[in-house]
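Quick start: what a row looks like.
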Amino acid sequence: MTALLRLLALSIITGSCSAFTLGADGKNAAPAKMCDVENIPILDEIPEGHKRLFMVRHGEVINPGGDRPVYYGAMDVPLSPLGELEAIEAGNYLKRFDLQHVASSPLSRAMFGARQVCDNQNESNDVVVFEGFKELDRGAWCGKTKDEIGADNLARFDACDESVTPGDGGESYPTLKSRVIASRDDLLEMTNVGRASAIVSHLQVTRAMLSDALEMDIKEMAGLKIGTASITCVDYCSATGKQTVRFQSFKPESGLEQSKDGAN
């Protein structure tokens, strides 16, 4: 089955009201079926024998290149004031769910969001930090613009040509995905059957987990849409390991301005 057909099939399985979209901002394989009253995704209870993960991307950051957007990857760049507000809104949305664990990347932009999630839970939760949820390390490409790296190099990188992996500790998508999935599995092991946990992390980390759930070729991972401070939901069957994407990249409607989401 082609990737396109898999994505279309998933939209039907998840009960989506609209077909998946493919545009400049990427693929949305599982658009949320929205509640007309609250304008939030309609989400059934966790199925018997399953666990649920909510995957939250951090909010908008202050790009270290200023008006000259550069790639920053695993650099510890701060959230913008808008990014903090976005993270607060994501935490407000998740307060309706009883989360067993709140996990985070060690980077401060994710930790801020994880604290918002914890603060909105009825019971006090400590943030569980996983090194494996750290953003993709761009190595020698950090601090460089797209033009400086070269469109051809970036295209080859996205296609998983590991010969163009940047030096100085840079990672490829296969390397990233391996460590992310290992940490995800550790969190699932910590999460009881019938319970939900949340992960606050990054663009490429969320893409790695979502592409795994979609059984997507890793070479297509870079095309997945994951908005700033958006939430993706996946259920996992404890008996079979089957993964079901409930919705992808839902961003709570809060009246905030559009975030800037350029080089990453």
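That is the whole record. The radius of gyration is 17 Å. The longest strand covers residues 50-57.
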